[in-house]
Structures
1.
Amino acid sequence: MSRGALTQLRDLVPLRPLSQSEALRIAELQADRLLKLAGLSAPPVPDDLILEIPKIQVRYMTPWPVSGCVDWTGAMWTIALNAAEPRVRQRFSLAHEFKHIVDHKFVKLLYPGLPTMGSRARAEAICDYFAGCLLVPKPWLRRAWTEGRQDRRALARNFDVSVAAIEVRLSQTGVARSYERCWARPQHSDWSSDSYRREFSSRSSVAV
C-alpha cells in the first residue's frame, strides 16, 4: 500500500463541519479510494489492506472490554481488537478503527453535535458506515445480487462478513429494493434485458 494512502483519504474531506449526508458520502468515497489504491475489484477485502499501511499495527487482545480501540503511541497507530469475538466482527472493528485514524485531529470540526446526535455518536456512526462500505462495497453487492446470489448467508461468506453486515448493507444501499422494483415493472413490448440493465445501472448506520 502506498505511503500516501492516509493522505489521499484525508484529502477527500473538506475541513469544515459536515452534514450527516455529506459525512456518509465522503466515507463511501474514502472506502472506494482505498480499494482502488489496492487494486481490489472483488470480495473478500483482505485484512492486509489496512495492515500493510505504514505506521499501523494490530494487537489481538483477550480478555478485552470492547470490540476495538485505537491509540497513537508516538511512533505508530495501534489498533487493539477483541480476540474473543468472531473473526467477522474483528474485521468490521478493524475497518471501523481505521476510519478513526483517518479522521484523527478533525473529529470535532467535521462532526459537531446535532440536536439529535452528539459529536462522538456521529463519529462512531460514520466509522460504522465506512467499515460497511469498505468490506461490502455497493457495486460489488449490486453485482452479486443481480447475478442471482441473494442468499444472505452465502453473501456473508463471500464477503467474509456477518449476515447482519449484509442485511445492513442491503438496507443502506437499497440494492434489494431496486432489484425488486425493476422486476415488478409491467412488461411492455420494448422492455428488453438491455433496457433493464441500463435502468438498473442508472438507477444509513449501525455496528454489526
2.
Amino acid sequence: MRERVRIRHSSAGFTLMDLLITVAVFVTVSAVAIPTLAGAVNNMRLRMASRDVERELQSARLRAVSMNRAFRVRFNCPNAGEYRVVELIGTPAVPDARDNEATRCSAQQYPYPAPDNNPLTRPNGDGPLRRLPDGVSFSSAQTIEFWPNGTAHVSTGGTLPWPKISAAGVTLTIAKSSTTRSIGVTGLGKIRIP
C-alpha cells in the first residue's frame, strides 16, 4: 500500500497583495511627508541665513566701536543676495567719493583681508563678501552705518551725516519662497531677530 505524503504549505511568506498594499501605504505617506520636510528644510535655511546676517551686523557694530571708525553693512552688494561689512572711507559727515556701492562691494578693488594694516591706507577693516544660501534673498534691506559710539544710522536720501535710526527701528527682511524672517535694528545699535 502506498502511503500518501502530505505536503504542508507554510503561510509564513508575503503574498503579492501584501507587498502592493505596503508599497501603496509607503507612497501615500511619502507624498504627505516630503512637502512637509521640504518646508522644514526651507525654514531651517532661512533661520540660518537670518542668524548669519544678524551676526554680521553685530560684527560691524563691534568693529566700529573697537576700531573707533564708522562701518557700513551693504546688502545686495554687488549682486542680489550678497552682503558685506565695509569700513567707511572718510567720515560720516564727509564720506570719500570712492565710498559708494559700486566700488565698496568689489572684492577686487577692496580685498579681504586688506593688504596692510596701515591706518593711513584705509580702509583696512573691510569684511569678506558674504552670500545668502541659494533661493534665499533680501526682500527688504537698506545700508546700515554703525558709528564708534555704537549707534546705528540709515540714509534718508542725501542728508549727511546719516540720521540715527528712529526709536521704531528698521527691519531687514529675508525671504525664501513665501516664508520671511525679519531682523530689527534700533538707533542704539540693538540688533535682534524677533
3.
Amino acid sequence: MKLFSSEVKEEVKSIIRRMMDGVVNRRIIEEPWDPEVESMNKPFHFALAPELVWKGSKFERSLVTSMGQIGWEQIARVIAAGYHGHAENGKAIIGQTYSGRLNQIHNILDQLEHRRRPDWDVELEEILSIEEGDMEEVHVTADLYIHNERTNQFIYCEIKAPKPNSDQTKVSKEKMLKIKAMHPEANHNVYYALPFNPYGRREDYAHPHPKRWFDMINDEVVLIGKEFWDLMGGEGTYEELIDLFREVGQEYLPRINRDYFGIED
C-alpha cells in the first residue's frame, strides 16, 4: 500500500530533482572531467586503477556532498504535513521555564563535554526535578515542528547529516533540553534525527562526535533512518521514500551514462 498522496510524492521528487540537477550540471557542464588534470593531481592513484574508477569517484563525492545539502528538513516537512496535518521548518518555539532548569542544562552540557556519559532519561529527570529560580523566557528554533491535531501530539526534531560534528550536536542537545524544560508534558516529544545510517544497523553506529552528547544506541530520543521516516509518515515511509529516490535516479541515469561516462545505450 502506498502511503504518499500524489501531491506529497511530486513535492518530494521535486526536491530530489533540484539536488540532482545541481550534481549533473556541475559534473557535466560547469566542471567537466579532464583526465589530464585529474591524473596530474592524483598520479599514484591513476597508476593503480583505471581512469573510470576515479571518474566515478568524483561523481560520487559530488553526489554525497549534495545529498548532505538536499534539504532533509524540507522532505521531512512535506511528508509529516501529509501524515500528521501540520509541519513547519525553522519554527520559533517561545516559552518560559525556571532559571534553575536552564542552569542545570548548562551544567549537564559542560559535564558531557568533560567525559560524563550521556543518558537522556537521567539528564531530563535532573532538569525537570528543579522548580527553583525566576521564570525566564526561552527562545528555540526547531529544525522541524509537527502538530498532529487528531492526537494533539507535538513533535520537535533536530535533523542532522548522518555524520554530524560535535558542535552541531551540542547545539541540538541544548535546544531539545530547553524545549522539554518548557514543555515537560508527555504529548511534547523531542528527537535527534539522522536521515539514514551509514553503518547499517543502529547498534553499529560508530561516528564518534555525536556520541559525546547522546547515547546513540540506547537514547530513545535518537532516531536513525527508518525510525525517523516512519515517525514522519507512518510504517513503510522509509521504504517508500527510497523508492522515490530510485524513480528520480532512473530519470537521470541515461544522461549520466551518456554524457558523463560516455556509455551509449
4.
Amino acid sequence: MRLHAARLPARLDSAGGLSPLFDQDRSRWDTRLATQGLELLERSAAGADLTAHHVEAAIAAVDASAPSVDETDWSSIVSLYDRLMAIAPPPVVALNRAIAELELRRGDREPAREHFEAALALARNPTERRFLEKRVRVCECPPGPES
C-alpha cells in the first residue's frame, strides 16, 4: 500500500482528472513512502509463501524503483503480471498486463481500444470512466505526433 500511496501526489492532474502513469511527474512521488514500501516488501519476501499481494507489491516496486517511464523494466512487470494471472486471474489483472505490454504505445490501437473498453465496463467511479473514455477516444483517432 505504501508503494501505491507514494504515487498519489502525481495521480491527479491540475483539473482533478486521473493522470496516466506515462504522464505522471515522478518527482512528485513520495520517496519516503516508496522507500518504506520497498523495505516492507523485502521483509515480507523472507517467508516461503507467495500470495497475490506479494506479486502486486513486486509490480509496484519495479515501477517505484524506476526513475522514469522509459527506464521502467517493463519485461519484469509483464512477467510479474503473468505470475499474478496464475495466482489470482481477475479481469483487472488481465487488463493491467495488457496495458503493461504498451499496445497503444506500440501503435496497436485496436487491441488497446478493446482493453480500455473492457476496463470502462468495470469502472468504479466517474473519474475512472472519464479517464477510460478519453483513452478509448485516443485509440479511435488516427495516429499522429501527439500519440
